[in-house]
């Protein structure tokens, strides 16, 4: 499936994604992409974040592929749990990267209002990429989230939170996971035809 056939929505996590974050780089290089902006990146409120995601999805002019990082992943899960069937049909798939476990011991206080985390299958193809040493989610927890969401799961070794602090600026290797998601979307479309 052609990349230009989608509208990519970048869904950042807590604190947003700075200019040198891979999500910002991808936004600059992927055609038909834009970022979900939040009013408050420091004190996220689940209802507000989910509302902004919903606005971005329904306003898109083409089928949507979500590219979520960290707290963006629980935001997607909460949106799915409350979205209408019509809104859900706007999304073709989601790439979930370094999902934040908002139920973990020691979870930062500003993220706790995203718990409990909906752990039900997503109604579209998804690929989850976790890390064996991510402070925001253990490898086991990332796998459990991905399995509950029906995602194809990969846990990378020693890549941290897959953000600027862990050395992931352009993260061109990550585009292989986006390509894999697009393949899954194409396979699903063929089954429906």
From TrEMBL:
The answer to keyword Coiled coil applying to this record is: no
Q: Tell me which stretches of the chain form a coiled coil.
A: none
Kindly name one Pfam family recorded for this protein: Ser_hydrolase
Question: What keywords are assigned to this protein?
Answer: Hydrolase
Which terms in the Gene Ontology molecular function aspect does this entry carry?
A: hydrolase activity
Q: Does the keyword S-adenosyl-L-methionine apply?
A: no
Q: Which InterPro entries match?
A: AB_hydrolase_fold, RBBP9/YdeN
Stated name of the protein:
Alpha/beta hydrolase
Q: Which organism is it from?
A: Stutzerimonas zhaodongensis
């Amino acid at each position: 499936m052609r990349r230009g056939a989608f509208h990519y929505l970048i869904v950042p996590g807590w604190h947003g994604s700075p200019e040198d974050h891979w999500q910002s780089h991808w936004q600059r290089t992927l055609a038909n992409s834009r970022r979900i902006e939040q009013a408050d990146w420091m004190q996220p409120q689940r209802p507000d974040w989910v509302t902004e995601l919903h606005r971005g999805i329904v306003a898109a002019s083409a089928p949507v592929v979500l590219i979520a990082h960290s707290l963006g992943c629980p935001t997607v899960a909460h949106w799915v749990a409350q979205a209408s069937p019509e809104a859900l049909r706007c999304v073709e798939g989601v790439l979930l990267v370094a999902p934040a476990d908002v139920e973990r011991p020691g979870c930062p206080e500003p993220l706790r209002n995203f718990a409990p985390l909906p752990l039900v299958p997503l109604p579209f193809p998804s690929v989850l990429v976790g890390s064996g040493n991510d402070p925001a989610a253990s490898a086991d927890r990332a796998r459990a989230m991905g399995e509950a969401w029906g995602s194809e799961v990969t846990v990378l070794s020693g890549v941290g939170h897959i953000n600027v602090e862990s050395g992931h600026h352009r993260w061109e290797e990550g585009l292989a996971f986006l390509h894999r998601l697009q393949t899954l979307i194409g396979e699903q479309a063929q089954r429906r035809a």
